Amino acid sequence: MYLNIISACCGAAPVILFIIIWNLFKDILCKMEGMATNDDMNITRVLFCGPYFPPSHIYTKEYLQNYPFIQVDDVPLADVPEVIANYHLCVVKSMRLNSNVISRAKQMKLIMQYGVGLEGVHIGAASNCGIKVARIPGDVTGNAASCAEMAIYLMLGLLRKQNEMQIAVKQKKLGEPIGETLLGKTIYIMGFGNIGVHLAKCLRPFGVKIIATKRSWASHTEVSSQSNALPIENGIIDDLVDEKGIHEDSHKFASKADIVVCCLILNKEMVGIVNRSFISSMKEGSLLVNIARGGILDYEAVAHYLECGHLGGLGIDVAWTEPFNPDDPILKFNNVIITPHVAGVTEHSYRSMANAVGDVALQLHAGTPLTGIEFVN
């Protein structure tokens, strides 16, 4: 069509011919831009918030590399409010999504966590905007097992005095410090969910007594669909827990334990629940381990009881502020071990969660039901 028009105008003045050709060229560009826009509409965009936990977006991109209609971006935290309107799926990681940010997510269909915690998402605001909120179950991805292993790592590090051993190596000393063993200890698992169950399984061979609390205990027998799972009776896996209680029993259980392990989900009720009253109820010299969320522990209370010696040791994978300040005075104590929020960051766990996010993105693109995640609204 364009060639016929140009041929018909060849006898026209050069200026007129230039104008005609230029207008035809702009028309072609506009059509090309329209095609690009149409293609753009067929892309499902996945937003990872912030640079932390880099394997999450790296592994998800790898999983989706053969699906060009899924676009995965990791965006600096400060830029998220400005670009969130362009995305259909948001993986929050450590981002705090308040009502203002969520209100900008005009195309958003789903907000999810790369794991189990969702305390940073304003769920009510998401619901008001018609956006679903979900998390990835920890028991099917290996996340719970990875966190349980980290809890044991921190326990053993405190019992065997990891920091003091490093000092002894530098000072060329042998046969010191004298450590403790897990054998015979009473372990209080505070929050007996998926992580707590895996932790109890791992701890049993150490010859410990396990006590645990949770919000409520099932009153009926459950059997897991996994073929290698143990039967579950009265809400606990048979032979795993020696004594069980509810959250209101936490101080009583803390007074019996040599080691308290926090495996709670952080919500309004659990913020600062490990406070002065709780720690003072713990046995003198007992250990505190937290692989859940930093906000569960009252910082001032923990620092006070470390200073006075009532708390025998602190092992945390999560902190009150993250990234944690390496100059924080709490790190002056040799009986404190901190790791950089890596309890669930294992090859197996992160590959599994990347697959879960990738599958959800593909389902979202296809308009099929979303599976493999737990909705919270």
Automatic annotation (TrEMBL):
D-isomer specific 2-hydroxyacid dehydrogenase NAD-binding domain: residues covered: 153-343
Q: Cite the entry's keywords alphabetically.
A: Membrane, Oxidoreductase, Transmembrane, Transmembrane helix
Q: Which residues form the D-isomer specific 2-hydroxyacid dehydrogenase catalytic domain?
A: 59-368
GO function terms (MF aspect): NAD binding; phosphoglycerate dehydrogenase activity
InterPro entries hit by this protein: D-isomer_2_OHA_DH_cat_dom (IPR006139), D-isomer_DH_CS (IPR029753), D-isomer_DH_NAD-bd (IPR006140), NAD(P)-bd_dom_sf (IPR036291)
Residues crossing the lipid bilayer are 6-25
Q: Which family does it belong to?
A: Belongs to the D-isomer specific 2-hydroxyacid dehydrogenase family.
Question: What is the protein's name according to its record?
Answer: D-isomer specific 2-hydroxyacid dehydrogenase NAD-binding domain-containing protein
Which organism encodes this protein? Acer yangbiense
